[in-house]
Amino acid sequence: MLIHAANVLNYARNYRVCYLGGRYGGGKTSFAFRLAYDLCQYYGFRYILSNVRSVWNTEPRHVTLRDGVYIDAVFVLDEGGMYLDNAAQAKSWLAYLRKLNAVLILPSTFPPALLMRRLTVQRTHNFNAWGLPLWVYGIRLDSGIIKQTDWCAWYYPSEIYGIYDTVGMPSQANDLLDYLQDWTRSAASTLNYTTSSRLVLPSSVDNMQIHYDYPAEAEVSESAAFDALNDTMSETQYILEDVRAELIEAAHEARK
Is 195 helix (H, G, I), strand (E, B) or coil? Predict the structure, then answer.
């Protein structure tokens, strides 16, 4: 049973990526699957997809798009930091999550790219040694000017035992990314986009211009126009946060 977990679930749903850090054997993958389960139970996500075998997983070929657009899926990419450790690789996943209604959970000893660490969760206390089946997790949210810390706990984490393969070697999930790109193309076709939305980042941030392809219909309703404007503003904010994160990451690399 998760205790005081409403915030971490909300953060994961809204920010789309949750990084679970910590040592080997530190309960990262266990907690990832438990979060994925609760996101499906309480927030309407329909599928769990992972590079680790689990009885909760759905085979990607069996996924159907809701309304021809949304996959409503939670991805659990075990040890994702080993192959999502730079901005370019991170963006190959981040580009699709919000529009397809998907969440990415990354339990990994090695941290992923900074873009994927806005929401970080790590186990801070394990009370098993005192005979109490309780794990406590610290939560940190760092997105622009928003900086929050929180906590949650898991009572009887042994409830997850047998749900996923603890000895298997996770793959790099390239096959899942291929499916994600296929689903994006299918959703774009359903929405009558001439091509998938694209973004162009020039070399100079000062002269940055953002280009979008919009639906081909000649007439757009007022509500649809408002939704398109809201999407554009959200996308612009997201891009600016990416640029900020890349600059910070470059500064960190320069200090090494």
Answer: coil
Long-range pairs, 87-95, Cβ under 8 A, ≥24: 87/113, 87/114, 87/115, 87/242, 87/245, 87/246, 87/249, 89/113, 90/115, 90/116, 91/115, 91/242, 92/177, 93/177, 93/180, 94/16, 94/17, 94/242, 95/184
Model confidence over 171-201: pLDDT tens digits?
667 889 889 889 988 988 888 764 444 444 4
pTM listed for this prediction? 0.76
Contact by Cβ (8 Å): 45, 72: yes
Between the CA of residue 207 and those of 95, 129, 210, what are the distances in Å? 22, 57, 10
SS3 22: coil
Residue for token pair 């996959």: 71
E strands present in 26-65: 47-50
